[in-house]
Each structure stands twice: as C-alpha cells, then as structure tokens.
Write a structure and sequence with these properties.
Shape of chain B: globular
Mean pLDDT of chain A: 82
Oligomer: heterodimer
Number of helices of chain B: 5
Largest sheet of chain B: 5 strands, parallel
Radius of gyration of chain B: 13 Å
Structural class of chain B: alpha/beta
Mean pLDDT of chain B: 85
Strand content of chain A: 25-35%
Helix content of chain A: 40-55%
Largest interface: A-B, 21 and 20 residues
Distance between the termini of chain A: 147 Å
Largest sheet of chain A: 5 strands, antiparallel
Order of helices and strands of chain B: EHEHEHEHEH
Number of helices of chain A: 27
Structural class of chain A: alpha+beta
Shape of chain A: elongated
Amino acid sequence: MLEVSPGEELRDTSSDVGSVVARAPFLVVGVDARLHVTFAAGSSLAPLPSAAALTGGDGDRLLASHRALVDVLARSASGEPASTVSVVDHRRIALHAEPLPGGGAVVVCLDVDRTAQAVSRSEQGLRMLFRHIPAGIWATDTRLCVTRAEGSLLEQVPDPLRPVVGRRVQEFTGERAAEGSVLSLHQAALAGRSGTARFRALGRMYDVVLEPLREKGGSVTGCVGFAVDATRHYAREAALQRLEKRLDSAQRLAHVGSWEYDPAADRVEWSEELQRMHGMTPGQLSDTYEGFLSYTLPEDRHLTDAAVGRALHTGEPFEYDHRIVRPDGQVRVLQTRGEVLFGPDGHPSGLFGSCVDITDRWQMLEDRQRTVSLLSATLESTADGLLVVDLDNRVVAFNQRFCRMWQVPASVLETGDSAALLELTSRLVTGADAFVENTRALESESNADREGYDVLQLVDGRIVERFSRPQRLDGRVVGRVWSFRDVTERERLLRNAQLMSDAGRLLASLEVEQAVEAAARVALPLLGVSCALDLFDPGGSRRLFSLTLDGAPEVRLELSRAALSGHPLLETGDTRTRLTVPLMAQDKVLGVLTFLSAEGRRHTRDDLELAGKLGARMVLAFEHAFLYRQAREALDAREQFLSVAAHELRGPATTLQLGLQMMRASGQCPAPALELCERQLQQLERLTDEMLDFTRLRSQRLHFEVEPVDLVQAVRLTANALSRELEASGSTLTVKAPATLVGGWDAGRIEQLVRNLLSNAIKYGRGRPVEVEVSSSGDDAELVVRDQGIGIAADRQPFVFEPFERAVSERHFGGLGLGLFISRAIVEAFGGSIELHSQPEKGSTFRVTLPRKGPSS
Amino acid sequence: MSQPTILVVDDDADLREMLVLVLASRGFQVESAADGAAAMERLQQAPRPDALLIDLRMPVVDGTDFLRQVRSTPSLAGLPVIVMSGERGGEAVATKAGASAFLAKPFGILELVAEVYRALGAEEGTRPSA
C-alpha cells in the first residue's frame, strides 16, 4: 500500500530518479469508496492512462475503460488486498491493490519485466526509488529487530520513532501492544497474519501495512513493514467531505441546485438541493433526461430541449428560465445556467450547471410590472391632468389628459423642460403673471414641502382647479405632483344654481314686474349681453323691460317662432346667437324672454336650459302675483260688500225701529207681537254690527270706550237677555261668580264677548247644562263658559277663531261665523287671551283671561 | 209761535215717510224732499224751514256736498242741520261738513226728537231765528 504525492512532486524530482523511473515505469492510482480517482502518480505505463490524464477531469471515465485496473481496485475496495498480472500488448503488468482504511483503495502498477531488470541491475536504483517515494519500508527478523529500513518517509520521522537497522521495533513503538497498535501488527505478522493500521503521530497521519516475511518453505522469518504518510490524503479527503457538505449547505442556503448530464449514458445527476427544489426527497427523482423533463411544466419543456440541444451542438454556455411543477402542484420558476463538458476528442460530451429558484424574484418582478401597469393605467384613467416634476424642475411624468387640457404636445413634456411648459401654459390662463409667479413660488426649494391650491380661469372660458403637493420618498421630498381638474361644468352648475336661487329670491316679491326685471338683470351676464321681456296683452305686445351691457344692441321686438311653438329656441345670426324663451302659463303664452349673446360668442344648450328654467320661474312669479291680486281683490270685494250691506241695512232698521216705537206708543198693537218684532230688530242690528266689526277688524279699527265695567253684572244682564233662547234650548245655566268684578273695559264690548260665548254654548249645548264661572286671579279676571254639547273636532279647533269659520254646518246653526273671531279680537284688544278645550260629543270650554287694568295703550 | 218746520231730506222713501210721521206726531211741521237738488230748491223759497234732517248718502247731490252748499250760502249758513248716517266715521264727516247734530242709524224716536230739539235750541241760543 502506497501513498504517493501528486505528480508534480515526482516530476520535480524526476531528474534525480529519471534513469530508474525510465527503466522501471510504474503507476500508482488512489480511488475513494465510489471508485472516483482521488490521486494518480507515476511515469508513463502505456497502455495504461497517464497519471496526468487520470487526475484530469475525465479520470473516472479513463479508469473505467481499463478493466483490469477497475477489477483489482473493486476487489480491494471491498476490504481485502488484491493482486493480478495483466498481459497487455505482450507486456506483463503487475497490479497490486490495497484497501485504504475508511474506504477506497490504492493500486500500484508495475511493468514486471522491466522492473525486475531495473531492480536486478541496480540495488542502488531501487533504493533511490524508495528514497524518492514518500514511503518507508522496513524488515525485521523474528525478534522484531530491524534488518532493513528504506524510504524517504523514514528520514522524515524523528529519531525516537524511526525504524533504524539493528534496533528492535519496541524501541520506537513502545512496549505496549494494544489492539491495532503498530507493535501488535508486527506481532500478528510474525504469527503469519497481514494487517493494516492508521495512526497519528507528531501531527501526521500514517497508514501502515505489516506482512509476514516467509521463506520458500513458508515459515515466517520476520516481517516487512510498509508506511506511507497519509496526512495529505486524509486532509484532502476531509476537505473534500467538508467541501461537499459546504456545497450542499451553500446550495441549500442559496437555493442553488446543481446537475450533471451525460447524454451518452442518458444519465442526469441531481444535487440534493435541486431535488429539494423539485419538492422531492433525495433519491426520488428519475435520473434520465426524459425523467428530468417530466418535472418541467409541459409548455416550458421546449425551452429545456432547445437549450440542451444548442449547447451540445455549439459547446456554448447557456442560460434560460423554465417552470417546474412540484408533486403538490406548486409551480416554481427555475433559472438554469449550464456549461458544456468536452470529451478527449474535443467534442461536447456532457453538460453540467446550476439551477436557482427565482420564483420569488419572478413574482416580485411580475408584481412590480403589475404595479407599474396599474399606476400607468391609473395615471391615464384619472379625470385629472397630472404632472410630476423633480426637485430640479424636470418633468418626470405626465398623463395624456394633461396634454389635452393644456394643449401641450407630449413631445414638449418629454424633453422635461418645465420652464418651456410654464411658458406655453401661461398663454392659456387669464392673469398669466400671477399664474407664473404662483407656480414658481411653489417650485422654489424653500417651499418644497408646501401644498398649493388655486383656481385658474382660462382665456377660452374654462375653469381649472390646480392642486399641488410634494412627492415624498421615504419621507424625503423628491419632487412635486401637480394635478389639474377641469371644473368648468361644476362651476357652471354652481353658478346656475346660485342664479336660480337669487332669481327665486327676487321673484318672491309681489311687485312682479320689478322682480322679473331684477331677476333678468342678475341672469344677464351669464346668458349674454342684451335681454328683453315682451308681454302679450290682449291689446298687443308690451315691452316690460330691455337691458343691455356695455353698449350692446337692444333686443329687437319680433314675434319669434319660439313664442308660436311654445318651446325655447336658439337662433344663430351672423355674429351672435339669440335665445328666446316663451313664458308659458298653461297653454297661454304670457310673453317671451330674449337674450342676445356677446359678439362672437354662441349660446349653448346649457344656456338654453338655464334660460328655460329662469323663464319658468318668471311665469310662476307672474301667476303668483296674479293669483295674489285676485285673492286680494276678492277679499277687498267681500269687505266692501259687507260694509255696504251693513250700512244699507241700517236704513231699513231705522225705519222699522221708528215704526215699532210708534206702534207701541199708539197702543193699538198686541204687546207680544211688538216684542217679537223688536227682538228680531235687535238680532238684525247685532248681525249688522258683527259685519261692521269684521270689516273694522280687517283694517285694525275697533272702537273702545274704556270705563269701569262689572264683568259679573255683564254676565247676569246677558244671561237675562238670552233667557228666551235658553228656555227654548232646554239647557240650564249656572253662574258662579263673586258679587262684582270690576275692570277697565268697554261695557258694550264686554257684553258682546259674553253674549257670543254664552249664545254659542246655548246653541251647541244640546240641551245639557251650561256653566259660567267668573273669578279673579291676581291682576286678571277669568271668565269660563262650559257646555256639554257637540264639541269641536280636534282638526277644526285651530280654525274656530278665524272669520267665517264654524265648527258645524251652517244649515243647522245660524250666524255669520264671526262671533269667535270678534270675541278673540276684543279679548286681545284688552291684552287678554282666550283658550278652547273641546272634545267632540263631550262639550267645549272657553276660558277668557282679561287684565283688569284694561288695554295697555 | 207755530211749531218749527223741519225739512226731511232722504232718498229712502220709506224712511223719509216714517220720519215725517214720527216728527208730525210730535207736533212739528214737516216737509220732505227726495234729494239735495229738490231740497235746495225748497230752501230758496220762503218761508224757510227751521231745521234740516238729511241723510249723509244720497244720489244726485250727496249729503256732504249739499251740506257744504247750504253752509256756503250766506242766507242758509246758520240753518240747523241734523245729519243721519249708518256709516262708520259718518259723524266726523258730517261735523267737518258743518252739521249741527248727528244721528247714527239706527235710532229711535227719543234720540230723533232729542237731537232735533237740541239742534233747534242750540241754534236758537246762538243766533236769532231769521
């Protein structure tokens, strides 16, 4: 068993041993447990592959092609040394393989004949060979006394441990022959058993082989020891293991998997991480190319085919992305990079490479693309014009609406020149200087974090609202976002609403002709420069007013088609438009309202609509005024009639009174007949008085003569006067009152008040008892009249004190319906109040409160 | 001395006749006219009545105008004139126009006679009968 340093070292010393090596070519090859070449050294031993070729990238394949080598290595790798002599090209090549502790094996190959010759020719040469091989060999007799010791290794070993000829083995191994120790190996060899051991000494690792040394007869005459310095081998093996582990953990951490593809063998090797990436546990995966492809999403398989095919054809490295499907259905995106392996013939022989799971990155990219697309769609779909500038006042973003709103070509914006943009936009704005100044102020560095708002009036009549706010990134101002909103329509609607509100307020006046003119004056600036209203009276048309602004021409009077059609009309002249709105009351055309536009301006459909609304409001005002006038006239006529009727009735009443008095004086007429006539005459006079009182109340004139009046006496006198009516009704009357209760009132009016309340109670009392109470309460006198009659429905109660109001049908109960109206007027004239409490079928109670000091004025 | 003569002027024939009946029953000499024009015509003739009882509202010549006419006639300026009216504010109108007394319609015999005597007496007291 030998460990040989890498070929370079041998080459370095080849000049010294050249002659021997040249005569005795050899090859030493080490493999690991999986028969991968771990090292190779030696001179050319054709037809075996050279050491250099074996340590190259293709060593395993070369090794595999030499059956004898593989056989002997495979045998020894199972744990036993193996030897064979292979005849190749008539040359005998001896192969001896020794298992390595921990797996693997090393094989020494020698050309038997040439080595024998060389050795026989030169004992010295053999020694030189040993000296230059980093190994040691020694022999002992049966007493374990060293008989020979050769090899460079022994020279490196410090004296106490070095086998030296003439010394006993125990001297450098110690006397203890523990299990597996070097000494025990020597003892076992003396007993006829070979053995190997690995041990550590002075910081180095050594592999030691002990063989019995036998005579020709077979008896053991000593032993041969063989040691190689395995330190570097183990270090490399450990490093390799560490490297593999590290690679695996690195792949695991980086989610990088690696693979190797051998097309000739149709074999794909997967790293553990790559298997994990596919959602598999190691060993689960198929190792053929088709198997590999089966994990790829079907629609992406052509990508793998194409990349692999091209690489094998061209020898170029490649990179592509494809999607795989895990057993759980999850789709991942892998980025694959690959390189080509070349065979000894220089043609591509395989591929190897790595895969990275870029699903997250891909997802992020897709999310980002989606976000960008969303932002861009938002930017374009918003109703506002948008402009973004950076802190250097360069335009960094804008939308098409901004371009259209400001009539700026996108090409200007794309230059990023905001100064040119400001110049262009300022031409469209009224008050350009202020606009430019405000814009620059907000663009200045000191105002970078300020927000701005203003309303811009454009020269073409549009109204644009401008907002501006800083654009921030991580709290830092990086630019400014301007947004522009065309609010022309909103402003127009607001303005129209304001106009209709103003017009409505103005038109509420009963002075309708002035009101209509005032409303037209308010509307004129919005609807043109001239306005006129022509009314169609039965006698023809009459111009109510004509208004003009700034010397504009007056509206010509003409019977427009609008008036005939009954619909608003927009007519286009040479330089103006004329808007005519017929004022329609039901089917009748009252007149026409006409507006002329400013020169060069045209009325719009919106203007037509607004004028139509205004016209409708004017019609309402006319109708309202007309109805009010009619109602007023009807009221006046009624009062006039009542007044005249009352006066006219007084003539006949006078005649009757004088006549009755003469008849009574003559004594020729029966007294009951005379009394009946006299009572009827009084009733006639009372009705006449009521009528006159009513007309006086309408003009706020009631006549009073204030004097001390006894309310109790007034109640008793009235009760007496009504005794016949009381008797006829069947009701009884109870009066609860103090002896007297005097106040400063008008005797006639107090009597009128009491009579009204008492006669109502008798009239509506259904023959049930009527109660009257008189009392004083502080400075007030109180009169309560209560009946248990038909009562008054709740919904009629609020109206009983109104004139001509009665709670019941006039067919069943007489009177003018003025009694309570006059009663309340009397009570209020004396500073008192009257209340009603009533329930249908239960009766009514009137409660009068009168201050005793009389009217305040 | 004979009873005073009263000229009753009213367009309401029934009332006019009733007034004539009532005043005659109280011993007055009574004459009547249906309107102001007829009354003025009568006043131009002798013997002149001692007092006038007129309605404020009459056709052709209104009571107010007639009264002003009477008062503006020097020979009639001191003639007692009693004005009757059923209208509100009638008394003020009548007084302003120069009425000596006022009777608000409707009135009874006592009020009528009292006012007539008062008008005659007052006039007698202030100025001698012509």
